Amino acid sequence: DGGITQSPKYLFRKEGQNVTLSCEQNLNHDAMYWYRQDPGQGLRLIYYSQIVNDFQKGDIAEGYSVSREKKESFPLTVTSAQKNPTAFYLCASSIGGTSGGGYNEQFFGPGTRLTVL
Amino acid sequence: GDSVTQMEGPVTLSEEAFLTINCTYTATGYPSLFWYVQYPGEGLQLLLKATKADDKGSNKGFEATYRKETTSFHLEKGSVQVSDSAVYFCALRNAGNMLTFGGGTRLMVKP
Fold first, then answer.
1. Got the DSSP string for A34-83?
2. CA 20 to 30 Å from A115, out of A25, B29, B54, B72?
3. Count of A–B CB contacts within 8 Å?
């Protein structure tokens, strides 16, 4: 089955620690995205990548870092610089990023809930 | 910049009631509009979409019409079921394929 997997489902972190969230897709999609979800605020874009070895900051990139060494993988690191990291993190992918004209639906993973203790 | 505004929830309905969740947007150009649904503990699933003015998106009994004159994309369903209980997100897509989401509306359907 094709899809997006995120692991772990639940993650606990002590203050001052970095933690990495995994996102893998076997849909052969070029573009991948990371969103943060907080209650009542919808989803906010953290980082996105339209192609391997390239990524751009989204609206709330401070305190986060990403890498895109492989097409199928887009891990997100929540660093100690992120002051309020407790949230639900969602990864998504689409066929293409900014290719003009056509619609490229974003498919979402099941999410990782991060809690800072 | 682009923005999406949804009615705040939770919306609580009895089974078989009529559902409306309001959504309005602000955007430059001609965005595509979407409704996503999130069931408890899960990611988002695309529910329906409309890509131009007056288009009606529909799926699983849900409908929404792209109204350019009122910049709205209200979600409706004639008869809700308990299984429709979820959080619903309205979103728009700009020219760069980036999605802008509303704050989400929680729907609770009681038997």
1. EEEE-TTS-EEEEEEEEETTEEEE-TT-TTEEE--SBTTB--EEE-TT-S
2. A25
3. 54
